[in-house]
Amino acid sequence: MATKNNSSNPALQTVVPEVVIQRLPLYVRVLSQFSNSGHDVISSEQLGQQLQMTPAQIRKDLSYFGRFGKQGRGYDIAMLERQLRTILGLDRTWNVAVIGMGRLGRAVVSYPGFAPEGFKIVSAFDSDDKIIGMDVSGLVVQSTASLAATVKKLDIKIGIVTVPIAHAQSVIDSLVKAGIKSILNYAPLSPQVPSGVMVRGVDPVLSLQSMTYYIR
Amino acid sequence: MATKNNSSNPALQTVVPEVVIQRLPLYVRVLSQFSNSGHDVISSEQLGQQLQMTPAQIRKDLSYFGRFGKQGRGYDIAMLERQLRTILGLDRTWNVAVIGMGRLGRAVVSYPGFAPEGFKIVSAFDSDDKIIGMDVSGLVVQSTASLAATVKKLDIKIGIVTVPIAHAQSVIDSLVKAGIKSILNYAPLSPQVPSGVMVRGVDPVLSLQSMTYYIR
Fold first, then answer.
1. Mind listing the pLDDT tens digit for each residue in B115-135?
2. N or C: which end of chain B has fewer CB within 10 A?
3. Mean pLDDT of chain A
4. Nearest C-alpha of chain A: how many angstroms from B134?
5. Which residues of B touch A6 (CB under 8 A)?
6. Full set of structural domains in chain B with CATH
């Protein structure tokens, strides 16, 4: 997964390695699954088994954020999940814009997994006159020319880029110019962004390419 | 990104950390971009700048695989790209099956980024009688009941799972039973797989959830 991290908060990064931050959502997911199946307490062994990590690694990751568990008793699932959600900023709703309403962009806008997790797609953009004005899952596609104004008006904090590779860097530049600091990029390139802007890539090809190493 | 690694080759993993393997496709991409723009040689500084890594980290990553560069001269782009592709198993074609022909699955099958990188989607599956038999980007959707036979017949080595979360674990079980050892999973869960099977997750929600930490 292509990940760029030029976070605006170097102090936090020094304290908590980014790889730990990237694992926390997995913890939240497993805690939620255990909670839904009626468990109250989970051990670092159980967490480790779910996540293919050692119990020691789990305890070390969580130790960055204070003491969550009691020796020999395990973690209170509800409390740990709530605290991790607060740490990750998942205790609120984030407004999201998706740019690029081709097949991929339309699939992203209609994906039911974002809203329950607090990511609310509030606007959709394209630069093609034939697509602007279309309805995509209840959103009227806007012209990318109105991006900056809409980002400001709707307090959009996250941009999802689903345009073809040839347009991705310029769309990302526009998002940055509009004040967006968190970008999820589906285009298969490593975009250049200024310090203080974070880009994560969703790129199935990169994932496949690092698996073939093990089966080649 | 949810990543599970129960590789069948622990010796290789001991030698090369998985995080290094996961970065190699990014190297290949940047080398290819530089090559396409007419460059012959690249320094670890230039590579590092593109990938937001230090030159020392680049040199350390590559040192796992031998000596590629000459001190003070940089890397021969064409040679390094070719060698990394061989290391990653990207010097051949891999046959791929996609299971789940809802909106996401259809977007995956029609995504133009797989084939040029050697990932050939040769069959598409669904369990819904209304979808079986449909044409999706030139493939006739087959019943998941014929998964094992088709995997064998077409020498499929990679499965891409695009079914809803409720069916993901059982579809992954079927893939494993059919002999697939590399699975790309789009469903938002951490599936359990036996040792020797590798699952990588493509999960935009997890990526978003670890970015909000920095902007919360």
1. 999 999 999 999 999 999 999
2. C
3. 89
4. 18
5. 52
6. 7-88 (1.10.10.10), 94-208 (3.40.50.720)
